[in-house]
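Ligand-bound model needed. FE2/S2 (inorganic) cluster.
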Amino acid sequence: PKVIYVSASGAEQAVDALDGESVMATAVKNGVPGIIGECGGNASCATCHVWVRDEFLSLVGEPGEMEDDLLDLGVGDRRAGSRLSCQITCTPELDGLTVDVPPEQA
Ligand code: FES
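Prediction:
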């Protein structure tokens, strides 16, 4: 599946993801700026925060409990589409998933 990362300046980076890999790991592997993944995907650092575009929100689903807490505590600008990208798994259904990378992380 393809994942499209959009920087604060509007630059888009489309990346081929592996099925089953997280959106965070895919970004780190491909050098997408602003997605750091400091905790290695344990939902404890919030350096992988992204805003999922509206049209993909229902496919991605709601954040889990730990993720929800960390979004409250660790994210400067939490929006409806805020998710920790380490908690989103790339699947064929999510092909074309588009996420915005918050400017403070870039
Ligand atoms: Fe640390 Fe996602 S990589 S919370």
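Residues 7 and 76 are 17 Å apart (CA to CA).
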